[in-house]
Amino acid sequence: MTGHAEKAAAFAADESRTHWHDESLWFVRVKRDRQAASIPEWEALREAASAIKTHTLSRLADYLEEFERNATANGIHVHWARDAAEHNAIVHQILASHNATRLVKSKSMLTEECHLNPYLEARGVEVTDTDLGERIVQLRKEPPSHIVLPAIHLKKEDIGELFHIELGTEKGASDPKYLTEAARGHLRSKFMEAQAGLTGVNFAVAETGGVVVCTNEGNADMGTSLPPLHIACMGMEKLIPRAEDLAVFLRLLARSGTGQPVTTYTSHFNGPLPGGEMHVVIVDYGRSRILGQQTFRSSLGCIRCGACMNTCPVYRRSGGYSYGYIVPGPIGSILAPQRDPRMHASLPFASSLCGSCTDVCPVKIDLHQQLLAFRKELVDSKVVPLQKRLAMAVMGFVLSRPLLYRMSGSLLRALVPGLPRGLVYGTWNRWGIQRELPTMPKESFRDLLRKESS
Amino acid sequence: MSSRNAILDSLRRSAAPATGRPAPLSGTRYADPVKQFEETLIAVGGRLVRGGDPADLDIYANAAKVASLVPGVPSRSVDLHAIQDPHELDGVDVAIIPGEFGVAENGAVWVPGEVLAPHRAIFVIAQHLILVVPADQIVDNLHQAYERIRWQPNSFGIFISGPSKTADIEQSLVMGAHGARSCTVILR
To answer: Do A322 and A391 sit in the same domain of this protein?
Structure first.
């Protein structure tokens, strides 16, 4: 099994592409900074967002019941799913009961997490992802590489080639305007044929019993205003108590994510189309377990803006696929090992712990602290490879014994410069794969200080 | 036990100690909210027209099919109330829709669902969008916006800020992803 480091190395092998990927994301981060600076009360907003999430999570069961009551009064069918399998079965059952075999989907990371598309496709449902970036990766049979910018890893030439084959655009054409126009035509015909629309949920509001979906393209609105059947799937942490709380989160979401003042469309669905049907599927799938862990609880406050990815020096240089989980970047590195610690053990280590993610997070999740805490858990539960655990144990032993520490310092200063390079940079020294040791000084700081002060 | 009760039980078992709600925020105010609204609207790809009639705009004059929901502004070659199936709206060039108020900080216009009747799809399916908003109904920020929205049971409502757009191909901004290719707001 390859971990993050191995997959990142494969990505970074193409140096110019890595550089381009890094710059593309930094461009988004700079736009985010400009928007954040335009709001004098930005920090107060982040505080408020964090406090609302903490409050909601402390009474989540009550608020979910309130939501269910009000949604039902709005004529919405509310479903509960303990895990991915139950979620997928519920969605399929709703579609089947309407004989719906053509589904248009707008962005939903939850349905990616649950692997809904292959489940439905195996049962004869044609699923079309309608967000342009998602459609691109769907046609390539790839998962999204970023939660907000699903095709950020692709160049326009890659997409031009894909559209030439799939949509019949001119060979060699790569103008984004031309390609977007082709996708508009292609997807409009999908919207016209669809029998049902599925959306994610950015926010569900207990007070109104409705859900809010944010898009720039308008795909969620096309998909829910043409076919009479709307299914909205939500992780249960998407709930907020009141409509007025939307102001706090919507002021933060697009500014943090893409550096826009707000998304083009912010749609409030408080019921079905006239004559239609609306269903909301509330999904746990491990969330209640995270809620029970004090250290990681606040990660449930995530509003999926993607800011922590855009700013992360590791994500920018290693790409979304290096994480091997549907949510990459710092937040994914906390969520993925919650799902499967053994499979995703390398992720909490895919961070320099610089804290930039924590600085930009609109709901003030202490991301880098949680990554550090997760490392400890993984080491304690022996999920981390023996080599790393041994190195840590030796370091811990030496660093907690001052005399031993000083002796090993003198010993290494005397020995290492004389050792053959092949030994110092042997395969055991993973740190040294891409780094050079600094030149060993003749004396330690302690020796120098003693000399100076005598 | 049903999944519903199993989930609620496990949430109640693992919930953190209760914390309070934060105090409401008031948000930035602008010396000239209309000017701020205009600047933001332009920044998100929209266009502001101060005063006047939608019928005077080139985009109206040049359109073959116009669907108007604004009283006093005629539709052209579209009879919204005669249409049974919203799919028939594909091909409408311009939709003219009344907005209730605008938001200075983000260039958004609030459109309550009831003004979209009989077909909600009209705001997103039309090729171009004209929103008509009362000139004295521009609020500073979203906090004020949500204070004035009255929620009806079984309803729909939407903020629209500029034209439909995407930057999914190499971060190049392109207008007209699925919805309106242009968005003109008339303040009058």
So the answer is: no
ipTM: 0.98
Spatial separation of the C-alpha atoms in residues B146 and B139, rounded to whole Å:
10
Identify whether the C-beta of residue A291 lies closer than 8 Å to the C-beta of residue A54: no
Q: What's the number of domains chain A is made of? A: 3
Q: What is the CATH number of domain B33-187?
A: 3.40.50.10420
Given a contact cutoff of 8 angstroms between Cβ atoms, the answer to whether B4 and A281 are in contact is no
Which amino acid would we find at residue A20? W
A259 and A310 assigned to the same domain: no
Residue A30 sits at the chain B interface (C-beta within 8 Å): no
Chain A residues whose beta carbon lies within 8 Å of the beta carbon of residue B84: none
Supply the range of the domain harboring residue A77.
39-285
Q: Looking at the structure, tell me whether residues A338 and A428 fall in a common domain.
A: no
Contact present, B156 and A270 (Cβ < 8 Å): yes
| Contact flag A292-B157 (C-beta cutoff 8 Å) | no
Q: How would you list the strands of the sheet with B47-50, edge to edge?
A: B47-50, B182-187, B128-133, B94-98, B66-68
Could you list the pLDDT tens digit for every one of the 454 residues in chain A? 589 999 999 999 999 999 999 999 999 999 999 999 999 999 999 999 999 999 999 999 999 999 999 999 999 999 999 999 999 999 999 999 999 999 999 999 999 999 999 999 999 999 999 999 999 999 999 999 999 999 999 999 999 999 999 999 999 999 999 999 999 999 999 999 999 999 999 999 999 999 999 999 999 999 999 999 999 999 999 999 999 999 999 999 999 999 999 999 999 999 999 999 999 999 999 999 999 999 999 999 999 999 999 999 999 999 999 999 999 999 999 999 999 999 999 999 999 999 999 999 999 999 999 999 999 999 889 888 888 889 889 999 999 999 999 999 999 999 988 899 988 898 888 888 888 988 888 889 998 999 999 8
Q: Pick from A225, A253, A285: which residue ends a domain?
A: A285
Q: Which residues of A touch B167 (CB under 8 A)?
A: 149, 216, 258
